[in-house]
């Protein structure tokens, strides 16, 4: 039921996926190939991760001197960001100490604080946290007192976030310019599938002994959240980076006893089976992530029918490739637009979606809106 590696059309174009699948291919790269790899990896946000992969394979010396500094500087930035994330999470924990709930960090910050392999070479735009909806106002007030404030949003986007989204508008620190996304769920209330946030909170685990008071989702929930974020998000400039997160998370947990049955069962309980299916399909397609055949059988109830699957393959094989002109074909732009519309269709019913898309297409471009993260 999964895509065959022999059906990949990206072989001559997507050098990033190619080298992540098989780092030895770099030994046959010309200087033109290295130049293109740097360009594609930068657009995908994966320069630092490639550096770490090559370091793990003792292949750093393979990088030509002319290209080496690109990878070295990205790796240095990633290492500095990880230190900064740890420090920033501690500031958030202090700011929210008065709330009657644990600090739960999500996505990249969770990988860093829990010392997971998915933190390797990870670059950050913001820090995501989850608080119960009942404490959302208190959390926002506490963060404002500590220096974080929402800004740069149009009145429309402000209303959109607070009325329909699963998070409040992004909050940026007045002095450090760090950004926090405060979530109360992992999908909007209006989404076709709505995992109960309390079920996620019931299974949180400590991030680690070196980060007291900080919690992360359980192993299965981390994977399912990453899959959900990727396949319900209409903006995919770093889709391949997010796929590599999933690949590392899956490979890390796969050795645990009964991991795969637990993952499939948890996806079913949270209404995220279809997202898991797509996550496994496209991590295997792009990165050769090992998935047991039994898992595909277990996911058969949520497998799309053949016509829909063919359409999704045509979309995501393009939309998840590096967002660089060298990876594009005549249908890439259409595929990205289709992914954008699909994500909004999953998050909003038609009577909300159509006015929203019309507003974003015909009104928002003419407004003076400098938001760092539009709705």
Describe the structure.
The protein is an alpha/beta fold and 375 residues long. The chain is globular, with a radius of gyration of 20 Å. The chain starts with 14 loop residues before the first helix and ends in a 13-residue tail after the last helix. Helix 3 crosses helix 4 and helix 9 packs antiparallel against helix 10. The C terminus is likely disordered. A hairpin with a 5-residue loop joins strand 4 and strand 5. The protein is built from 16 helices and seven strands.
Put the structure in a nutshell:
The chain has 375 residues and is of the alpha/beta class.
Topology readout:
Layout: H1 15-21, H2 31-44, H3 47-56, H4 65-95, E1 103-106, H5 107-113, E2 127-130, H6 136-145, E3 148-150, H7 155-164, E4 171-173, E5 179-183, H8 197-201, E6 205-206, E7 214-216, H9 219-231, H10 239-253, H11 259-269, H12 273-287, H13 293-298, H14 306-319, H15 332-347, H16 350-362
Parallel strand pairs: 1-7, 2-5
Antiparallel strand pairs: 1-2, 3-4, 4-5, 6-7
Helix pairs in contact: 3-4, 9-10, 9-11, 9-12, 10-12, 11-12, 14-15
Features:
single chain, 375 residues, alpha/beta, Beta Polymerase, domain 2, seven-stranded mixed β-sheet, 53% helix, globular
């Amino acid at each position: 039921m999964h895509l065959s590696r022999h059906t990949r059309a990206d072989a001559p174009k997507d050098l990033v996926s190619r080298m992540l699948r098989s780092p030895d291919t770099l030994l046959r790269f010309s200087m033109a190939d290295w130049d293109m790899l740097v360009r594609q990896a930068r657009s995908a946000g994966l320069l630092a991760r490639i550096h770490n992969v090559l370091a793990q394979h003792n292949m750093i010396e393979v990088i030509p001197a002319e290209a080496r500094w690109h990878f070295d500087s990205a790796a240095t930035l990633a290492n500095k960001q990880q230190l900064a994330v740890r420090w920033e999470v501690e500031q958030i924990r202090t700011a929210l100490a008065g709330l009657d709930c644990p600090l739960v960090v999500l996505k990249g910050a969770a990988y860093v604080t829990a010392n997971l392999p998915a933190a390797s070479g990870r670059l950050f735009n913001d820090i995501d946290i989850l608080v119960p909806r009942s404490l959302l106002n208190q959390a926002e007030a506490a963060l404002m007192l500590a220096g974080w404030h929402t800004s740069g949003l149009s009145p429309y986007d402000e209303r959109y976030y607070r009325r329909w989204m699963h998070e409040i508008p992004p909050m940026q620190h007045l002095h450090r310019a760090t950004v926090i996304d405060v979530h109360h769920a992992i999908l909007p209330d209006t989404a076709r599938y709505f995992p109960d946030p309390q079920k996620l909170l019931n299974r949180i685990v400590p991030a680690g002994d070196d980060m007291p008071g900080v919690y992360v989702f359980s192993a299965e929930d981390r994977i399912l959240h990453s899959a959900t974020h990727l396949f319900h998000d209409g903006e995919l400039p770093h889709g391949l980076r997010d796929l590599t997160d999933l690949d590392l998370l899956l490979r890390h947990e796969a050795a645990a006893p009964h991991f795969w049955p637990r993952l499939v069962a948890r996806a079913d309980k949270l209404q995220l089976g279809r997202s898991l299916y797509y996550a496994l399909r496209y991590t295997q397609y792009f990165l050769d992530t090992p998935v047991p055949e039994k898992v595909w059988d277990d996911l058969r109830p949520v497998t799309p029918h053949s016509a829909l699957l063919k359409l999704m393959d045509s979309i995501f094989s393009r939309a998840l490739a590096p967002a660089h002109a060298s990876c594009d074909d005549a249908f890439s732009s259409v595929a990205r637009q289709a992914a954008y519309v699909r994500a909004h269709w999953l998050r909003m019913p038609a009577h909300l979606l159509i006015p929203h898309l019309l507003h974003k297409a015909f009104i928002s471009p003419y407004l003076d809106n400098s938001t760092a993260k539009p709705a």
